[in-house]
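Hi U.,

Before I forget, here's the chain from the pilot set. I'm dumping it here mostly so it's searchable later in email.
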Amino acid sequence: MKSDFLGFGNQLQKDHPSVWQQVKTDWNDTYLPDVKIQYKIKLLIRKTGTTGNTTLK
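Structure:
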């Protein structure tokens, strides 16, 4: 669908405006499909269990 719904183009424009000026016309068709994404997830679960009427004492 070539839709930048995560806003990578907007972030590129903010961080590297000169690069954005060079790629903005072809961003959705040429550059966006080749974007490599790396992510790191850190998850902390607090207060597991029920929040109300529990059978545990």
